[in-house]
Records
---
Amino acid sequence: MLLEELIEAFRVLPGVGRKSAQRMAYHVLERGREGGKRLATVLAEAVERIGHCAQCRDFSEDEVCAVCASGSRDRQQLCVVETPADRLAIETATGYRGVYFVLQGRLSPLDGVGPRELGLETLGTRLAAGEVSEMIIATSATVEGEATAHYLAQLARQHGVRPSRLAQGLPLGGELEYVDRGTLSHAFGTRAEMP
Amino acid sequence: MLLEELIEAFRVLPGVGRKSAQRMAYHVLERGREGGKRLATVLAEAVERIGHCAQCRDFSEDEVCAVCASGSRDRQQLCVVETPADRLAIETATGYRGVYFVLQGRLSPLDGVGPRELGLETLGTRLAAGEVSEMIIATSATVEGEATAHYLAQLARQHGVRPSRLAQGLPLGGELEYVDRGTLSHAFGTRAEMP
């Protein structure tokens, strides 16, 4: 049955179980046929045509993505992130004008994710070219993210590139009471003198 | 940009905002290309081919749906539900062997949903044919659902059909403490003598 197939097909989406998939199928059929048709078309095209940028490994329709191809970005700063979503978050929230490198993951030997899977050979070649002076390591603040950051920092130093890491501490607007213990303890320990 | 279009396209789905849409797009591109391709194909086909059953108004690929076309259902019992999801819930949870009628909504004059929009003329014609003896009204227990139920009960009686309504009370396994006041009060008022 086609409806049943549609419900099953929606389950490929993240966080979508049987119940949500059913709701999506009904919604599209009841009130969103035009949008559904459009989603089908765009999705088919995207899956077919979107690959990875040869320089930064982010998603890209072209051989080289728009940011890497842009003439107005500062190629001395290279920001390394775990995922395309992280890159987008930095691009949206900050005024960063350098370029990126997307790992598409983080070091996790137990899951079989090593330096090769993260494209660190490509990254090494790029650092060796000598154009980059600062590597901004923006991996997440998890155990695996930290391990990846250490590895990346070593790699940077090998090529005479200065590694830097995003600041850690209390989130802006965060109530002290609700901040987790680890963050609080870290922020307390690394407190800075007020000007 | 194709990726941007894909993210926008996902927003047609219910409960999917910008952030979820982005997560879906990235997920499909990173880990679900096969599933994504399949979703695109099935979705395009479903939007094109799934219409409404001429007899019960549920979704159907064919002129008449599988339940209405089945020779093994009891045509004396007609269960009226608001949505295809409701029909599916009853079909899955109960042993009901009668047939259905799907309103695809409920009476809501302020939103411009009257008897015509709910296909009540078709329903009336069906009751007039004399085959149905009991109309099980399974609209929801909301104000609008109740109003719809009353209207349906009148329609049934006009055609000499016995209307019935799903029982209301404490949900099975529900702790008294957590049941809402309305339900508790109703269940208390309609308490039944124990055998």
---
Amino acid sequence: MKGCLYAIGTGPGSSDLITVRAARLLARLDVLYAPAGKRGGDSLALSIVREYLGAQVEIRERHFPMSTHGDEKETLWDQVAEELRQDVESGLQVGFVTLGDAMLFSTWVFLLERLQGRIPMEVIPGVTSFACISARAQFPLAMEQQSLAIVSCTASEAALEQALRQHECVVLMKVYGRFGRVRDLLGRLGLLPHALLMAEASLPTEQCFRQLHEVDGELSLPYFSTILVNKQWLAAPVEEVA
Amino acid sequence: MKGCLYAIGTGPGSSDLITVRAARLLARLDVLYAPAGKRGGDSLALSIVREYLGAQVEIRERHFPMSTHGDEKETLWDQVAEELRQDVESGLQVGFVTLGDAMLFSTWVFLLERLQGRIPMEVIPGVTSFACISARAQFPLAMEQQSLAIVSCTASEAALEQALRQHECVVLMKVYGRFGRVRDLLGRLGLLPHALLMAEASLPTEQCFRQLHEVDGELSLPYFSTILVNKQWLAAPVEEVA
């Protein structure tokens, strides 16, 4: 049997939001590469897929740097890429798990650019965090005739303002540590009634804030925090029918 | 047992790209609403989920208008919403399938705005068409520090140009019937080396074009045709390692 590398998007966090293709594949892998967890526990990506792994799967936890910049990080990515290449060339079915979708804001791309065309590979797409947030909050990402921008709050305030002015719908990722400033910008643009904030969507620790003008600007947020804006939809609390 | 409405994103087309949550749910529904297919066959959404349906599931095919505009269409949506509401209130587990993700460019939103807060409901997110295209083509949607815009080619040329100038990555949906003009715009902006076109991703009829300057502007495309642009990535053909 020929070896192959599979980059697997795990979806946003809940184990049952991975695809059927990913679940079937995880059962028959030889090796799975996963980010190293903190304090000896599983990383989130590994904890999502663990229930689907076949008994034969060897888990190899590796430290994956979050960015490719700097010589040291380049060397680390080179080493992981070389390990993967050798595994595949020796005929193994090799998986690599990555949160959300594999091709959107994922460190998988640092391996793709090193290995593309050199070994057989397949990318398994996943549900993005913002699709999950939109579903959980019942707040549409974008409707027909609208355009959608997905930007990180690490961008300049000018870039965020431009996106918020020019698109009807905006996903603001990485709100973590920047909530007060982003909330003020939304207020200045009159967009607070059309914005909501969600943290850790689909996990037991999920939190949703719909009246952002009432939220403390110093609010301490988890790392996975995202604001959705839709100019044609109101974020007012939905009366839950139980 | 209490009734509930489930809006289920089916993903882009291949049956195994639905989520595990959707697959499990489809097995235990009482009723599934699906778009009516053409010429008596299944609609694409129904064909994707059919293998997961429990034997007890009653399929109700309905004609869903593609837009909510016009009195006649409003009336049609009102009727479907009323049917769903009555089913749920009578205690049924009711599904509604929609291609891709349920909250992005989906007609599900016309039902959501009519039923939100009135009946128990849950939205199951799905893999978007563009995540699947990106995975199939091994062409990243966006890398860290990049921003991504998702726009329809039905927008004005000025709006498309603005998105292409201001974002490092752009998904151009609904290329169908507009390929020549969009290709010319990409050429004028120097983006052809960074763009690829895919039609019917994940289906047996999938087609991918990577050298858009060589493609006939009058190319006849299927309805589901999308162009991806990533200014940091080259779309040149990948040497496939078999």
---
Amino acid sequence: MPAAPRPFDDVSAVHPCGEGEYAATVDAQWGVSNKPNGGYLLAMLGRAAVAGAGHEHVVTASAHYLHSPDAGAVTIETTVLRKGRSADHVRATLRQDGQACVEAVFMIGHLDEATSPYWDAGAAGRPSGDRDAAVRVPSTSPTGMRVPLMDQIDLRLDPSCLGFAVGSPSGSGELRGWLELLDGAPFDTTALLFAVDALPPATMEVRPTGWVPTLEMTAYVRALPVPGPLTILHRAGLVEAERVDETTTVWDSAGRLVAQATQLAGIRLG
Amino acid sequence: MPAAPRPFDDVSAVHPCGEGEYAATVDAQWGVSNKPNGGYLLAMLGRAAVAGAGHEHVVTASAHYLHSPDAGAVTIETTVLRKGRSADHVRATLRQDGQACVEAVFMIGHLDEATSPYWDAGAAGRPSGDRDAAVRVPSTSPTGMRVPLMDQIDLRLDPSCLGFAVGSPSGSGELRGWLELLDGAPFDTTALLFAVDALPPATMEVRPTGWVPTLEMTAYVRALPVPGPLTILHRAGLVEAERVDETTTVWDSAGRLVAQATQLAGIRLG
């Protein structure tokens, strides 16, 4: 029986426990097998970074993943690298039992609701599919791996990129989906850090494999999303020497580009 | 009269001056106006990170730019975040007069010469233009800004993306070029960190502006380049709220994809 869903705000909460220090708990369900999702951990770090900053929105985040923590207690140490009028820069390090697990640097600034694109190359075209016709991702992957995260969120994929689920990946290396939190909570700029890493590896539509651990991930938040499901495009780039780069673009329910991310991950291919 | 070119190896050199500490000198010529190039600074940090690691190649680098240093003396403090069998993770912070200017985290590992792509989406198609027909970028920009860097390197742009130089940007937001170091030195993995930021802003082909300062830049080195000029594709994504994202792809002279980067920069548009 799947674990009862817990709100994202709860599982990513951080609690001050010293000067620039926060305590948090990695939830056992927010990941793949027993490995917590990288975007979930980055969101947790982002909440600690915002808590210690003089501004409110994550604008950039770049993270290196050093060691996958187990579910349970972690600490987050934050250091303000620079305080500015328009943005602060904050380093945050997540540790478990003294071991560094994730280190990220954030630019925390202010995003205005009233902005609009000046110019857009449109290189990552927003998927035009129909969310009502999309298929919710189950919590067991085609390779038999348990993905408890999928019982905690409402993630749906376009049927045209579900070849991997029936043993026939399209070869496109591209997944298109829609993401909602189960409690219907809107996505703030820290929840967007989870959203950019919520889809299965885009390489599922090249060749399904086991765990594809994120090594480095960088996200840019470009606008504040309106409430409603996010549309997400997740694309693999080059698979070589057991590494793959993936790019992710996120739009809000009004069609506005709100976040972009790139990651390098390990993979047992190439 | 332009300053005599200095080899990249010299201007990016770092000298041990304590436990995990390095001294370096920011060259006045390697930048735009009096601002040093962000990729040049990242390469300097990368050399310090490699010096303190048990492996030899930069695989990933993610940097936040906090404050632009002046030409002159800087120090680089490195901290090994994790030592591993296949890779080390190293944080490096560049300071001038005690002020933090750039902080970056690196994954330092080993890239094998014998690898080849397993799968490639080909999303960033390698420019097919002719380097012999390309135009060397001069050290004065169309907006009248001095770019002394261009006297220090051999950077040539495809004539089809030079509209900006004659007041008629194509609107593509894309630059395609070829880069060589003037002393003909091959690009190692740290020099590639400079290469990903060597081109003018891709927004020149949207609308020429003044300085476009890098806020965050992340680079992945995917393979070791063979000697010879690099081919570089530099594309703008979304310009909004005085920020722009740019993606850069670099191929070696044999046509192999060797590096990828993304950056968020400030711009006086939107």
